[in-house]
Every structure is written in structure tokens, then in C-alpha cells.
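User: C-alpha cells for both sequences below?

Assistant:
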Amino acid sequence: MQTHPPTLFSIATGSADPIYRQLIEQARRLIAAGALAPGDLLPSVRDVAQALAVNPMTVSKAYNMLETEGLFQRIRGQGMQVAARKAHQGAARGELLRPTLERAAQEARQLELDPESVLTLFKKILKEFK
């Protein structure tokens, strides 16, 4: 069991996505990638809110939605932890990336970029992050 710091999450202030939605998507990706393992303790709502300079209700909303989804579970006296792996095995990694790619595809269409140049750019970016 690992305890994570409040800086586990980050937000994009210029994003059109609500902050609670950004936190939910980050948590899903961290779990899918194994960065958050079952039993890991999450930073408190207050600590995350303070680290990100957001309203604690925003973090609480994200945590509650993830609990409802079965990814997090509340442990009395300890806070929130990542739920057992079997609760979220169905989430395919590719599907977690889909909303981000859909937004990128929409922007590519608005910029009237052809699919080949977009794919070339995406492959280049993937190589940069190895």
C-alpha cells in the first residue's frame, strides 16, 4: 500500500473540460497504467484542493464519482483508496484515450489538416515521449 502526494494530480486551467472531469480522467489513466495500484491511499480532498488551488468540493465530486464507478473505495478512518483491481479490469486503456483523441480529431478538422499529416505529427509526438 502506497500513499500518494497531493501533487499526484494536475489540472489544465485553459482546458474546456471541468476540473472534476480532468481529475476523473487522470485517475482512470493512472489506474490503467498501474501508477495507482489497488489498496493505494489517495491524498485527502483538502490536500489535493490546496495543491491545485481549487475548491475542495470539486475534488470531493471527482472522488465521489470515482467511488460510485467502483474505482475508489472509502475506508473509515483512513480516507480513500484505490479499489480492488477486479472492479476496474473492464476499462480498456484505449478507451481511456478516446476522448482526448476525439478532441484532437475535431481540432484537426477545424484546421483542415489531412489525416496523414495528423498521424505523422502524432507518431512524432509519441516518439518524443519515449
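Moving on to the next sequence.
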Amino acid sequence: MTTHPLHATAGSATRSAARTSVAAFAAILLGSFLLYGVGFAQPQQIHDAAHDTRHSFAFPCH
């Protein structure tokens, strides 16, 4: 069994919080792109797919 000093645990918690924040920010960016960016896409099939996806999640768009 390995024991870690107390200060190493605090550093791990800080890194974990930073990684969680980065992942949350990336998810928000991707979600925003899917909801808004693809909705304005020129090919009709991509626009329709984004439109239907928004409605399937009960997200109003009109």
C-alpha cells in the first residue's frame, strides 16, 4: 500500500478541478456549435438534421 503526503492530494484535487473545467468548457462549445452553428449551415440536409435534433430535445428554435 502506498501513502501520499497531504500536499500531493491537494494538488491532485486542483488538477482534477482544472480538467473538469476544461471538459465542461469544451462540452459547452461543442453543444453551442451543434445548436446554433449547424442550424445556419447551407446544405439543407445538415440544417434539417440540426433542426430536428433541437426539436427532439424540446429546444425551441422559431
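User: Anything stand out in the second?

Assistant: Residues 6-37 form the longest helix (32 residues).
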